[in-house]
Design brief:
Elements (H helix, E strand, L loop, with lengths): L5 H17 L4 H8 L2 H10 L10 H33 L19 H14 L12 H23 L7 H18 L12 H19 L7 H17 L10 H6 L1 H19 L4 H11 L1 H23 L21 H36 L1
Helix pairs in contact: 1-2, 1-3, 1-11, 1-12, 1-13, 1-14, 2-9, 3-6, 3-8, 3-11, 4-5, 4-6, 6-8, 7-8, 9-11, 13-14
């Protein structure tokens, strides 16, 4: 039986769009893709949720820990250890930082200890200037387990209405997000207040619902175009994204265009999946290996920053800009090079590492056979 690779292609498109967004792409493109690219990740994860976990919660939680919590802790701690060394190498400095003028500083021993505790206990404390996308690990970890808990509770309460539970969960989460943003409330036990986790849980649930209707859904070119127009209109007039500081108005503007964007990408992915070749193989490989891109794309940007510093004759310390060098960012095409590096280098490293591992395994097996 052939593997269904459409969702892998969806994830590939989502991760590429994330890197494009972090590369300070042109405003029109930036606003467009931020409407849906992160909700798409949550929906793609929810697509694989199964009701079998209602009777096997431990297995689901173990998978979440192995696939999300552990990689987050491992890489957050590694970059924490490297933080001060990055200053010694000149990759980060206290002069250049993000667009709003904020910079980062070397850590004292006490600050490193506190970051370590935050990493372990709250999935926070990660290096914002090197791991700016790491909030997603916490967001998906909490959202997926929260979805299981709510589903389990409603499954026990509504024994005669089980078919409606996925829809009730999504409605409940939208109401909670509305309440939270309208009155400016925070979930104090979650870093950044919990908005991303609650909205992530909603989109997770939407992915699960879509899986139930997928066989009846028929992608067409005109619906794809319609979805694109809807996303574009919202991005230009009522722009919203999964910003943790979203207002009530931004919350109201997010779900509809985000879901349209998810369906748009699904339609495109379905079409791409039908065309065999190197491009499809690349997208499937990319979608199956989003983790190294999440972890290393910002660090990979630094190589392009060196090129940009040489090209424009900029202060070498601008390599410390987060996430990319801001000078001329909206005027030139360096965002394309940043995107190629942010996606390509982590994937190249992953592919090379696996090739070396395979050769070592073959050599080891051959020597044992002799």
């Amino acid at each position: 039986m052939n593997r269904n690779t459409v969702i892998s292609i969806c994830k590939a498109i989502a991760i590429i769009l994330m890197v494009i967004g972090h590369a300070e792409s042109p405003d029109v493109l930036h606003r467009f893709l931020y409407e849906f690219h992160m909700p798409l990740f949550f929906a793609a994860s929810g697509y694989f949720f199964s009701v079998k976990y209602l009777d096997d919660e431990a297995t689901f939680v173990k998978k979440r820990i192995k696939g999300l919590y552990w990689p987050f802790v491992k890489w957050s701690v590694i970059f924490l250890i490297l933080h001060n060394w990055m200053f010694d190498l000149g990759i980060m400095n206290e002069v250049y930082g993000n667009e709003s003028g904020g910079v980062t500083h070397p850590y004292t021993w006490h600050q490193m200890e506190q970051c370590f505790w935050n990493i372990l206990t709250a999935m926070g404390g990660y290096d914002q200037f090197l791991n700016g996308a790491f909030w997603f690990f916490r967001g998906l970890f909490v959202a997926s387990i929260l979805y299981l808990i709510i589903y389990k509770g409603l499954d026990l309460l509504l024994k005669n209405y089980k078919r409606y539970i996925p829809y009730l969960i999504c409605i409940l989460l939208l109401l909670l997000c509305a309440w939270k943003t309208y009155d400016g409330l925070k979930v104090i036990t979650l870093v950044q207040g919990g908005y991303r986790e609650l909205m992530g849980c909603f989109f997770f649930g939407c992915g699960f619902i879509f899986r139930q209707w997928e066989e009846k859904y028929r992608p067409t070119w005109w619906t794809t175009l319609l979805f694109a127009v809807i996303v574009w209109w919202f991005s230009q007039n009522l722009w919203a994204n999964m910003n943790w500081r979203s207002s009530f108005e931004q919350f109201l503007s997010l779900p509809f265009p985000a879901l349209c964007g998810c369906l748009m990408v699904y339609n495109v992915s379905t079409w791409l999946d039908k065309h065999e070749g190197w491009f499809k193989r690349f997208l499937v490989f990319c979608g199956d290996n989003t983790l190294p891109i999440f972890v290393f794309h910002i660090l990979s940007f630094k190589l392009v920053s060196l090129l940009k510093i040489w090209y424009y004759g900029l202060d070498p310390r601008q390599i410390g800009c987060h996430m990319v060098i801001h000078d001329y960012a909206k005027e030139d095409w360096f965002w394309v090079l940043y995107t190629i590096a942010g996606v390509g280098l982590p994937l190249l490293w992953t592919w090379g590492y696996r090739q070396i591992k395979k050769r070592w395994h073959r050599a080891s097996s051959a020597s044992q056979a002799q």
